[in-house]
Each structure stands twice: as structure tokens, then as C-alpha cells.
Specification:
By secondary structure, the chain is an alpha+beta fold. The protein contains five helices and twelve strands.
Length: 249
């Protein structure tokens, strides 16, 4: 029997076996590769543990890429603050322009318009009405103090109700007001107050006859005569203060 040389078999260490196993698991099997047990291997497959680790690594990489976004592409917070400041400033400017051109707040200075308006009540006045000049009976208007009432320390504007228009014949008779011979309907009162007798008087064109709602305590056209329309500041349309008395006029 021929002599067969005996070679020394070197057994792999545990560390070598572990490295070999990891290398075999990481390396994807080719499409037509057959595993050691005779079954076909899946192309591109990887252990579940490594797949999960790969997904986590991708998420971390994506977050890192967002955090590394160039500063020039991000909107500075100061721009947001400046935009808000601009919007607020623009709104205030519009409000001031509207107030200056269209509306005026007016504080009731006396009892002449009670019970409709009391001392300290605040109304909004539409200022363009003095340019339109299309007044109606019952309108409440604010106007410059007539010359007949000047000479006192108070030169503030007055507020009264329009009773007669240009061309109307106005008269106070038996405690009631008559316009063009007919009793004036005054739906703005719950109870129509008594009026002192006056007239009849004919209102000139371009003028108004105005009276306070407090007929027994009002210096109005019965005292200073006709009111020229050019003296009208505007028409009061809203009683806005106090809130408990909020109402249109």
C-alpha cells in the first residue's frame, strides 16, 4: 500500500468562523446561485437585521442633509418680523386715512339731544355727507357753532336733527311740529315731546331747519335761525358708546 502523506489539518478559530459567516451573509447571492441545501438563492436579499440598520442609516443621512442645508436658502426669521411690522403699520395707516377723510368721532356735549343722545355718548360721523348735501328729515347732523351762539368760552361743534329742508315751511303749533301744513311724523321718538310755538318760516334753498330732540332744552334753529348746509361737518349715523346703548341713528 502506497504511503500517503498525512497533512496537518488546521481548524479555523472561532473569530475566523464569525468573519466568514458575516461575509457570506453580507454578500448578495447571484440570481442563479444555488444554496448549499440545493435551493435557489434570492437575488439582492439581505438579512432583516442589516435591512433595518440600513433604513435607520438612511433616515439619519436624510436628517443630516437637511441640517446641512445652506444658510442662504433658509428664510431669516428677521424677514418674518419685518413682514408683520409692515402689515400692522399698513393697517394703521389705512385706518388713520379713513378716519381723517371719512369718519369722525363726536362726543355729545349737552342734554339738547336727549333722550336719543345723552351727555358723554359717542357717535360716529360720516364726513362726506357735507359734500353730497343730500339731507333728509330726521338726519342727525354735526355742524359748526353758528355765529349767534359764539362769544362764549365754548366754540365746539353742535349736533341736532334735521326738521326742514330748503323750500319747506316749518311751524310749531300746539306743541307739535308741522311741515308744509302737515303734522310731522317723528318715528325716532317713543313719545313725541312738546314743542314751543314758532313760525311759520320758509327754509331757504341751501339751508336747513334743525332742532334738538330735547325740545324744551335746546338752542337750535328757533334761536339761531336757518343753518347753512356749508356749515355741516357730517351726518351722525351710529351711537357706539356706551356699548349698552349701541344703535344706529
Amino acid at each position: 500500500m502506497p504511503h500517503v502523506p498525512v497533512t496537518e489539518q488546521v481548524l479555523p478559530t472561532p473569530a475566523d468562523a464569525l468573519h466568514a459567516a458575516l461575509a457570506a451573509d453580507v454578500a448578495p447571492a447571484p440570481p442563479d446561485a444555488v444554496s448549499g441545501d440545493g435551493t435557489a438563492g434570492m437575488s439582492g436579499s439581505a438579512p432583516v437585521g442589516l435591512a433595518v440598520q440600513s433604513g435607520e442609516a438612511g433616515a439619519v443621512a436624510a436628517a443630516a442633509s437637511v441640517s446641512r442645508q445652506p444658510r442662504s436658502l433658509r428664510k431669516p426669521w428677521t424677514l418674518d418680523v419685518l413682514e408683520w411690522i409692515g402689515l400692522i403699520a399698513g393697517a394703521l395707516l389705512v385706518a388713520l386715512v379713513v378716519k381723517a377723510l371719512l369718519f369722525q368721532a363726536f362726543v355729545i356735549p349737552s342734554r339738547s339731544m336727549e333722550p336719543t343722545l345723552r351727555i358723554g355718548n359717542r357717535v360716529l360721523v360720516f364726513k362726506l355727507s357735507d359734500r353730497v348735501g343730500d339731507y333728509e328729515r330726521g338726519d342727525v347732523v354735526v355742524f359748526a357753532r353758528p355765529d349767534a351762539l359764539k362769544g362764549t368760552d365754548d366754540d365746539s361743534d353742535l349736533i341736532k336733527r334735521v326738521i326742514g329742508l330748503g323750500g319747506d315751511v316749518v311751524e310749531g303749533r300746539k306743541g307739535r311740529v308741522y311741515v308744509n301744513g302737515r303734522l310731522l311724523a317723528e318715528p325716532w321718538f317713543d313719545v313725541v315731546p312738546l314743542t314751543s310755538d314758532f313760525g311759520p318760516v320758509t327754509v331757504p334753498d341751501g339751508a336747513l331747519w334743525v332742532m334738538g330732540d330735547n325740545r324744551g332744552n335746546s338752542q337750535d334753529s328757533r334761536v339761531f335761525g336757518f343753518l347753512d348746509e356749508s356749515a355741516v361737518r357730517g351726518e351722525a349715523f351710529l351711537r357706539w358708546w356706551p356699548i349698552s346703548r349701541f344703535a344706529g341713528l
